[in-house]
Amino acid sequence: MEALGAPQSPPSATTATSAVLDDDHLLDEILLRVAFPTSLVRAALVCKRWLRLASDTVFLHRFRDLHPPSFLGFYVKTGGTKAPRFVLMPQPPELA
């Protein structure tokens, strides 16, 4: 039995990680903050539980609100009878 006021040893990294990953609310917040939709898809492939969290309709609405679609490019019409040309905007490597 430990005396009152005695310092407690810090939890191990495994215990701390398990405490976060076993909590659906915390895991939901972590998945919500991944930078790209492609990363969310990769996270959903980890296990059935992560897939359930990442494919939840409420979660997806929150994700979309936090990460609006990015501007991929635009069309340029140069005149004459030529069809408009699509100009691709630079994208992060994750979306390339």
UniProtKB/TrEMBL annotation:
Q: Which Gene3D superfamilies match?
A: 1.20.1280.50
Source domain of life is Eukaryota
Q: Name one Pfam family in it.
A: F-box-like
Residue ranges of the F-box domain?
29-63
- InterPro entries (UniProt xref): F-box-like_dom_sf, F-box_dom
The parts of the chain that form a coiled coil are none
UniProt cross-references to SUPFAM superfamilies, sorted A to Z: F-box domain (SSF81383)
Q: Where is the secretion signal located?
A: none
Protein name as annotated: F-box domain-containing protein
